[in-house]
Structures are given as C-alpha cells and as structure tokens.
Batch of 2 targets.
Target 1
Amino acid sequence: MSISGTNMTDLNSTLRDVASTEGLHFFGAASLDVREDFQRFSEWLRESRHGSMAWMTNHLEIRANPALLLPGAKSVLVFGFSYSLGDHWLRGETLSPPKIAQYARLADYHKFLRAKLSRVQKSLSNTLGTEHQWRITVDSAPLLERSLAANSGGGFIGKNTCVIHPKMGSFFLLGEILTTWSTPLAATDTSPSRHRPREESGGCGTCKRCQVHCPTGALDEDYRIDARKCLSYWTIEHRGEIPLEYWPWIGRYVFGCDICQLVCPYNRGLAPSEEARRLERLKETPDLIAMIGMDEAFYERTFGGTPLTRAKRSGLRRNALIAATVNDDMRVPPLLKILEHDDDPIIKLTASSAKRYLEQKKKN
Ligand code: B12
Ligand code: SF4
Ligand code: SF4
C-alpha cells in the first residue's frame, strides 16, 4: 500500500523507531468517534461526580466531537509514555512517610511529552509531505483521552478507570496528535514488554482489587469513579478546605494517589522506565514543615517545572499541613498559633481544623 508514495510498512517502522527513541512505549490510531463514551461522560457530569472541577463542563461540543479541534481532522494518533519509577505495593503497606504520586515526581509531562510528540510529528511530516495538518494535545484540550486511547488499541479501561496495557500496566501518560490524515497505522508496541501479562488480551475479569483497596471508596461502581471521594482530586484539583474524613489518607499521599494502580495485578513486577528515571525531579518528599512555611522562592526552587504546581503554593502548603498534623509531627502544635493568622485564608482555615483535629485526638 502506498500513501503519497510512502510504503506503509516503512512508515510504521520509522514511526516505531522515533517513538521508541523518545521512550514512548505505544502508539495507535483511532477514529474520532467517541459518541458512546460521551454519553457515559455526560451521565457522570449529571451525577456531579466531577465535584468542584467546573472546567470539566466547558467545551462539551469538543469532547463530543474532537474533530472540532482541527478543521478536516479525520483521525488521532495516541501515544503512551511509561513513567513507572518502580513504586510497589507491599502487603500491609503504610506508605509512611507521605508519598507523592509517581507521575508528579517527574518533570511536568505537559511539556516534555508535547516536545516528544512534536519531534514525532515532524518525522511524520517529513515522510508524508506537507499536505496534512496536525495538532498535538497532552491533557491540554477537552478530549476524552482514555476513550481515544482504548479505541486506538492502546489498552483497555480497567475498573479503576485507568487505561491498562496488558503488557505494560497502567503507569503511562497519554498524548495525542490529531490529524487530517486518515491514518491506516496499526496499534504498535515500541518497547519490549517489561513483565509478563496477566492475560494476553487484557480485561479485569472478576478482579476487584482496586475497588477493595481504594481507601476512600471512590471506585464505587465498576469502571466509574466518584472524583469527590478521590484523594487525587482533593490534593491536586480541589481549591479550598479538605474535609476531615480525608485527612488520615493525605498523611499517606500528600499529592495525588497511586493506590488503585499499585494494587493492580497488571502493574505487578513493573520495572522502572529508564526515561522516567531520567526525567525524575523529586527523589523524596520534601520536609513537610519546610513545605508549610515555604515562600515563593522555595516553592519555585523545589516544585517549579513539576506537576505539583497544579495545586499552587497554597494547595501544597495545605496538603503538607494536613499530612504533618495526622502524622503527629511535634513541630505542628506551636506552628498552628502562627498559621491561624496566615495571609492565605485556606491555610488559616486548615490550621483551625488541625487544632480541632488534635484536640479531638487527645480526647479519644
Ligand atoms: C479529570 C481527570 C482526573 C480526575 C478524575 C479522574 C477520572 N477517573 O475521571 C482526578 C483528579 C480524580 C484524576 C486522577 C488521576 N488522574 Co487524571 N485526568 C483527568 C482528565 C483531565 C479528564 C478525565 C475525564 O474525562 N474523566 C471523566 C470520566 C467519566 O472519564 P474517564 O475516566 O476518562 O472515562 C471514560 C472511559 O473510561 C469510558 N467509560 C466510562 N465508563 C465506562 C464503562 C465501561 C464498561 C467502559 C468500557 C468504558 C467506560 O468513558 C469515559 C468517558 O470518555 C484526564 C485527561 C483527559 N483529558 O482525558 C486525566 C487522566 C485521565 N489522568 C491521568 C492520571 C495519570 C491520573 C492519576 C493516576 C494521577 C495520580 N496519580 O494521582 C489519577 C488516577 C485516578 C483514577 N483512578 O482515575 C491520565 C491517565 C492515564 C491512564 N493510563 O489512564 C490522564 C489520561 C492524563 C494524561 N494525559 O495522561 N484525573
Ligand atoms: S487514586 Fe486513590 S483515592 Fe483515587 S480512586 Fe484511586 S485509590 Fe481511590
Ligand atoms: S485491580 Fe483488578 S479490577 Fe482493578 S483495574 Fe486492575 S485488574 Fe481491573
């Protein structure tokens, strides 16, 4: 078969080489038809499962029809970037001291993954000529990325709602290239499998480990999440106070949460990805008291260029204050007197709640 004089087998292998050099473990192509999943998404919004993420209700017409993002778009190329740093779930794990989710310990994927996809796209343009239009998105447009990934053959959607590749597990990030090219590319793995698949073809079967281990009951229905109960939502996306019922778990995960993936059999024995190690920025959780008291300079120096900036300085100080409080850090009580007069209203409120939390704990 030939497209603009290009042999498809050659194109697939060129793309495979470029993707592999970039540390992208998978690519596949899909049509832009996500109507069925858009119905699921609309239902999810109707039930207010998005909590305070009001931005999720914007641009619904694009989520329903991704072709609106690029005039004449016919298909999408989906890429997966494996980011495992080798975290594992140990039986009876306490996860103390407080952890940061694996993806967030790397440089900000919105930037490095976009740069990788940009190089891939250039190589495609070089091969195919200039007749096609392209648009790169990495969690930057209102797309149903998991649906597109599953449609491209990049994996299946698990009961924890993540896209899981049968051989690579679920610790990968997604990026897309929308194109006016009606691509006939086949789904392709670009790197050798890093562990033995549980099932060649994937699927959850009767497993429910993620639902059983989610500490807050956020995976209350198969393949559906209630973000309002998810630690990742509270520590990353939510602006404002965090209800006390979630505090004990923020003492385990101060930013994001990986529990429903760490317990998944598809991630068992997953080795760290070399490219992820290269992009690692935070090797350990910074001292919580230093985080609570951090000024702009400390914040920029420590978290600048990482996904943690999504929570802003205020959100990170709030999370650190909660984690230090529930972990009985002796430095917290004297600090609360100062924090109750902090310039940031969220810190003021969290400090008052921390005081109540500690008083209550003393009584019990
Ligand atoms: C909002 C959001 C969140 C929210 C809500 C999570 C959620 N599950 O919806 C919060 C803040 C909680 C969150 C957390 C995390 N997120 Co997030 N998040 C997003 C975002 C921006 C939108 C997701 C969305 O539309 N949710 C609404 C629900 C309804 O959609 P959905 O879960 O994608 O479900 C679709 C399919 O599952 C399908 N579907 C629904 N029901 C059913 C039923 C069946 C039977 C089937 C077959 C399909 C199906 O239809 C749905 C609509 O398309 C995407 C980026 C993007 N633009 O897609 C990243 C994204 C999903 N997040 C990602 C990551 C890495 C995470 C975290 C791991 C980060 C962390 N360590 O803390 C956690 C994982 C928590 C979890 N179990 O999902 C990655 C996931 C990669 C992957 N391998 O799946 C994405 C794709 C970002 C990226 N570009 O890589 N996230
Ligand atoms: S990320 Fe954590 S809190 Fe959220 S669904 Fe998974 S296990 Fe539950
Ligand atoms: S833990 Fe089990 S049920 Fe959950 S996503 Fe993994 S295989 Fe599916």
Target 2
Amino acid sequence: MQITLKNLNRNYGTLHAVSGISLDIPSNKIFGIIGRSGAGKSTLVRLVSLLEKPDSGEVWYDDQRVDNLSEKELILQRRRLGMIFQNFNLFSSRNAGENVAYPMEICGKDKETISKRVKELLELVELGDRIDAPISTLSGGQKQRVAIARALACEPDILFCDEATSALDPQTTRAILKLIREIQKKMNLTVVMITHQMEVVRDSCDYVTVLSEGSVVETGTVKEIFSKPKSEVTKDFLAHLTTADQDKDSTVHWSKVPGRYTLRFAAGNTDTPIISRLTKEFDVEFNIRGGGVQKVGEDEYGTLICDITGEDEAVKKTISKLKRHKITVEETL
Ligand SMILES: Nc1ncnc2c1ncn2[C@@H]1O[C@H](COP(=O)(O)OP(=O)(O)OP(=O)(O)O)[C@@H](O)[C@H]1O
Ligand SMILES: [Mg+2]
C-alpha cells in the first residue's frame, strides 16, 4: 500500500504541529520519520493512521482518498492498519494469547480461526511457548513482540511504529528491528517507523524523512541521507551516531580526545590519495584520532575521526575540497 500526503496541516491553537507536509511513502518498504521531541512525529502519524483529521490537506492510500471517510468507512479502513507504541499498550487483564486475539474478536472472527491464528502469530514473534503468560511476567522486548503479533492479527496493509523501541535496551532494539524487517518482507507490509534515533533508521529503514518544527527538512533513501546529509538537523543526528552500535560500528579510537571532524566516505569512492594531497596543497595537518567502518543497511562507509590544523583559511579550503571529493565532513565539536 502506497501512502501519499498532500500539504497536510494540523494546528493546536497557535502551534503548527504539522505544517505543509507532502510525502510519498512507497509500498512495501520501511519508511523512517525522524525528528527531535516536539517535531510533530506523533501528530503526523495520527493524521496518516486516520486517528485524527488534518485541518487541511489530503491523505491517500494507493488511489483512495482516506482523510475524508465517513465514520463507518473509517472503522473498516482502520482495521487494515496495525500500530505499535513505545509503551506497548497491552491489556494487563489479558494474557499474551488473549491480547493477540483481541482485534480478531472485534472483527468478528470465529473462535477456531482465532485460536489457530494466535498460535501462528506468537510463533512468528518467537513467543510460541508463552501463549498463557500474564503480561506482567513478560520482559519489555517480549511485550513488544506480543504487541507486534497483535498488530498483525488482522493482516494489515500498513504497520505504524511510534517509537516502538525507545523503551528497550540496544540489544533488544536490534532484535525487534530485525523481526520487523523480516515480517515486512514476509507480509509485504508498508512500515512507517517513527523514531528520534538514527540507529533505528540505520538498522531498519529503506527511506527516511527528517522532520523539524512540523515540516520536512529532507527526504531520501537511507543511503543518500547517510552519505550526503544536507541539513544541519540531519548532520546533528548523524554526529551522535558513531559509537552507538557495538556490533556494526567498528570504529577504533586510538586517542581519548574525540577529534574535531568526522569524515565519512562511501566504499569505492576514489583511488586518489586525497588526504596526503591536501596536506601538501594547503599546508595543513591531519591528526587521526580514530577510524573504522560503519554499516548502513547493506552498504559500508569508512569513517575517519581527526583534527585538521593549519591556517583558518587553509582548513576551510581543505574541508570544501574534501566535500567536493564526495566525502562528508561533520564537525563534532
Ligand atoms: N492534542 C494536542 N493538543 C495540544 N498540543 C499538542 C497536542 N498534540 C501535540 N501537541 C503539540 O504539538 C507539538 C508536536 O507534538 P508531537 O507529539 O507530534 O511531537 P513528537 O515529535 O511526537 O515528540 P516526541 O518525540 O516527544 O514524542 C508539540 O509541541 C506538542 O506539545
Ligand atoms: Mg511522539
């Protein structure tokens, strides 16, 4: 299911929570929406998932306009959507299996179908043996797995994840993201992934849009955004990424001082000895403090953490020449 947003606006009093957002969210992909707290992510997701109506603008699912549906149509359409949240929103009065059964009861499925499907879904999220477990006895990661199974119960076209991993530790986060990726492929789902963490975007998304103050700052494939971030907001998100993922970030630090610049370059960029040329050309020095490889989806990027010293003007020229060689330069201090 493809989602198209046309000039969406949502105000709360004088506050423009969502302001002129137009986006194409492609079918059968994982689409990330990243932004700081208050950027408007949850508001946007409420509009896209038809929980709230925009003040103006349009929401389309494939060729159907859905922001102006009647109450009855809305209920039916919303059954085609799955949602998971940071705080899981499970019923504590129901056990794991009964939570997964709930949406199917609402849809009026018969008991036998429900019980078969509950088993299948809990097996899919690797909790086949915890069907009778009270919710209070499950870990955070397990609760989110139950929530995922419940979200998938009525075979949705779209899965919305609003900060679904924000309450989980990094290892559990990776396991949940891996599960979401597997399910997305298996079920041909369109996934909308709301987050404030670049790690989540890197480890799960195909596309990402960056939100700031209710508006889109930039949108692209994760590969594009990581290798050529345009806006300051995006660069700031990326600058805080380097040491986050122990498995995939193999940066080696051979200095305790952090280094002022982080250079990022895509594999197979060039055979030119750029750094030694720049040293000669502008009479600057590179003091390398760390370096390694970072994996973004299937692609690998080299990173080099360094200081560049010399005359101010020479350092500026060095940086702009690095950028011309398609190397991203982020200032880390
Ligand atoms: N129902 C509401 N009534 C009034 N103001 C609201 C309402 N919902 C959101 N806002 C305001 O709209 C802005 C965007 O909020 P939103 O919850 O969409 O941000 P967010 O990006 O999801 O933030 P977070 O990362 O903290 O969840 C905030 O300033 C918030 O206070
Ligand atoms: Mg939010």
